[in-house]
Amino acid sequence: MPASLPTRAVRKARRIVRGRRRVHEVPDSPSRAAERILSLRYPEHLVAEPQDEPEAEEAPDAEADQSDARREPASVTRVVGVLTGATARRLGDDLAVAAVTPGARAFGTMIEPGDVLVVERAALQSGPWSTAETSSGTALLLEILEWTDEAREHGAAVVLLDSADAPNVGTNLLRGAADVVLPLAQQADPVLGPVPLSPVVSLLDRVARAAVEGDR
Amino acid sequence: MTPQPTPVERRVLLYGDGNINLIDGSTIWLVSMAQVLARTNSHVTLLLKARIISRKMLEPLAGLDNVTVVDPFEGLGDAVPPSRLLSVKEVAERVVELDRAHRFDKIISRGFAISNELARTRAFDGRFWPYVIDLPEPGAEPTPERLRDLEEISLASERMLVQTEDSRSYMEYRVPASVGKCVVINPMIPDDLGPLRGRSAPAGRLKGVYAGKFAEGWKTLELCDVPRLLAERGVELSLSMIGDKIMHSTRTPTWRARMRAAVTSSPGVEWAGGLSRDDAMAYSKTADIGFSWRAQELDSTHELSTKVLEYCAMGVAPVVNRIAAHVELLGEDYPLFVDASLESVLDAVERVARDRDLLEDARKKAMDAIDQYRMANTVERIHAALRATEVRPSVTLTGGRPLLLVGSDLGTTRGTHTVLRQCAGNVRVAQWDPTLTGQEEPRLGELSAAGTVVVEDATPYLPWATRRKATGQRLIAHVRDLRTDEPALREARLDEVDAFVFQTEPDLAAFSAAFDVPAERLHHAPLPVDTAYVDRPGLTGRRYRVGVLDLSPSARPDAAVTALRGLLAADEQFSLHVRDRLPWEADDLPADQLERSYYQALVAELGATPEVAARVAFEYPDSDLPSWYRKIGWLLVPRRRGRLDQRVVEAQAAGVVVLTPAEHGSADLYGPDASYDSIDALVRTIAAAAADPAEFAKRSAASRLHGGRHDLAVVRAAWAAALTG
């Protein structure tokens, strides 16, 4: 840290960076982890250079906190997901999103308590996860199932976003591994109306409904 | 004039783990397989598990002179109860006993337990063709013991039978030793199975049929309610239920009783009871639609139902779950797809009931879909697979003595070994310690015993072998990767080498320029690849997927990432698939500082461009490469400087378009269109072909054609010339 900068300014800057990273910079963190692993000083520098100073010792900074509050989305839920680019962008407007690709765990991506793991079936039909539902992509399917196991260990919810694609060999396993499969059946109580959903589930439900109904 | 009997090409023992007195999938397969094999000019010995009580299932085999049915308890009379079945151990003993008497060329067994038992005897190595149907599903991690058993079966096998392309992919992933051995046989339907003669388009009430067991997952209970519920919608359907096997349900104890009541008393349902297979087919032919509606948990299958194919062949439009396998079979717009819900079945049947043209369309789609499953096509496939393993040696070895293939690293020369075995028959393989320290005497013994010696690569044995060449011996140097400055080539007595065989033509030319060896001793035999094995149907969207096999700095994966950035600017469907281990997942991180620095830069680049990183898949280098190639359209390979990579040749044979930076000789290695002069040019080439499916198909076909130059038959001819001089 440059000695000439006031400690308070540095802390504020860090908080701002952290706030942004929460929303926009998540994909960068894993690569930094990998960079650190590859460092010539690995693993010593992991001990010698803690990424952040302990927060507990910091004095409260009302101004910075207000600034952070404005920057953070209303929901603090982070979506870790096997997602299409379009869905990642759409969710990213409202939520912190970490789109994972095959091999992401080796880059240091992890699920944390409070995250929601979202697996979008449409993302398995093309792109990096293509074939994950099929017999020729068993390794990819098992990798997704590892993510669901990890989510369970951390108490993170697992949501499957269905699509109009015909079910394949791995589809049932993904359904079975999910806490919720979206879209939900539209069964509004004739008297009480529809069951209210949290903003996050509601948003995911809209995405899944568009995928299921859009192509048919 | 009486026709001459066709000569028997091979003797086959066939066993399937089913009771021949019952009609079920395993016995239907067994009899069909016996018929197929009989049509490949094989003599088939069909060993049964049970004594013959009813000959009904065996009727198709009656009159086939080249099929011998072995009743395991024949002649034992009442000493053996009719229900007695051979145990797995007893079957294995009987197979060994029969083999002792007949010496079979192929042993085909269906079922895991018996295949495992037969593999353990080690008596059938190299002629064993197991059909293992009960693999653990992807969600159920197989135990180490199970995997060990599967590997043991694989190692003992010459070939392994699998039902579908999907089954092959899954088997190759689970059991690496099976790669290169799996033969897809497909479910089979009789050649003469067709629609009812004189059948006209249905009018009025629709006729539906269900044939098979009554089981909870097969939705037979709910099916009985379909005619009544359709009637409420004003649609008339009569439903015939064929079968007498009512299964228990462990989940729902009352299910069996309810099923029995439903099939006997539901309005619109007629229960035909159990029928012979022929009668069941004759009955089914009269229907308009056939039900194969299943519970959702049965959607996860690698296999196709023979029953569905039979419906299709009979022009009975099947009502089936919309799963990927059925969509591939019948087309995306097939009108009788359903899901697990009763509502979807009612909707589908109502649709075709109200629109008879739609029903005709469904029937036509069904009949058009099943040609490749006709028994005649299966006969062709199996016959080709059998013959591919039965190449008769074309080369007479010097002095009748064996051919010795010598090398220090023969792990990558399986193809050469196969070709030499096919050419010369009697081949011994010797992987020696490169130093030869203290080994000279025994090695000399091995060397002298051989009539022909093939030395893989110049070092370290070529100089040694040229100085110890026995009289009358033929010595051949196989040069896979020429280094003209290789000291061993200077040390060797080149005039003692009867033939030099080069894997690439540029190497042959370079050698010819550097050494004074007569041209007639120089041969070119391409790197051998079983092209038929790796050539599989490509998957949708492969033209947008770019593959890389090597993450090391010398392979320049950063260039692939740069190219991906350019490709994504053209179309966001592109993705990059890296099939190599990440450097920090190895036991030791690379010691080379520049190498570490390279990886840091690569990772930093990905970190700085998350939109590119989100399109990069890092996949493990598992053994199932042929399956992986199905989804890959393009393979970026580094400069090879003359050396061929077997994986790249396999990619070409699989229709993957290979691209490499321009260098002298790249056209010889990978074809005239394989090189690119700049990353921009690479991006333009890929983007243009991906946008034009016809252009991609043309490039893919050219790649496949180039890969065909490495086909075993082509390479065999080249080696035969080198072996005989």
Please identify the top-level CATH class of the largest domain in chain B: Alpha Beta
- Please, how many helices of chain A? 8
How would you classify the helix and strand content of chain B by structural class?
alpha/beta
Largest sheet of chain B: 6 strands, parallel
User: What class, by secondary structure content of chain A?
Assistant: alpha/beta
In DSSP terms (H or I, runs of 4 or more residues), the helix count of chain B works out at 29
CATH-defined topology of the largest domain in chain B: Rossmann fold
Q: How big is the Rg of chain A? A: 20 Å
- The CATH architecture term of the largest domain in chain B is 3-Layer(aba) Sandwich
CATH architecture label name of the largest domain in chain A? 3-Layer(aba) Sandwich
Uncertain spans of chain B: none
Largest sheet of chain A: 5 strands, parallel
The CATH topology of the largest domain in chain A, please?
A: Rossmann fold
Measured as a percent range, the helix fraction of chain A is: 40-55%
Largest interface: A-B, 49 and 62 residues
- Give the averaged pLDDT of chain B, no decimals: 92
Description:
The complex is a heterodimer of chains A (216) and B (725). Chain A folds into two domains: 7-71, no CATH class; 78-214, Rossmann fold (3-Layer(aba) Sandwich), CATH 3.40.50. Chain A is 43% helix and 10% strand. Chain A is built from eight helices and five strands. Chain A has a five-stranded parallel β-sheet with strand order 2-1-3-4-5, with helices on both faces. In chain A, helix 7 links the parallel strand 4 (157-161) and strand 5. The relative contact order of chain A is 0.11. The model of chain A is unreliable at 1-28 and 41-75 (pLDDT under 50). Chain B folds into four domains: 10-184, Glycogen Phosphorylase B (Rossmann fold, 3-Layer(aba) Sandwich), CATH 3.40.50; 206-373, Rossmann fold, CATH 3.40.50.2000; 398-525, Glycogen Phosphorylase B (Rossmann fold, 3-Layer(aba) Sandwich), CATH 3.40.50.2000; 531-712, Glycogen Phosphorylase B (Rossmann fold), CATH 3.40.50. With 725 residues, chain B is an alpha/beta fold. In chain B, the strands form five sheets. Chain B has a six-stranded parallel β-sheet with strand order 10-9-8-11-12-13. Chain B has a six-stranded parallel β-sheet with strand order 15-14-16-17-18-19, sandwiched between helices. In chain B, strands 22-21-20-23-24-25 form a six-stranded parallel β-sheet. Helices cover 40% and strands 15% of the residues of chain B. The longest helix of chain B has 16 residues, at 593-608. Chain B has 29 helices and 25 strands.
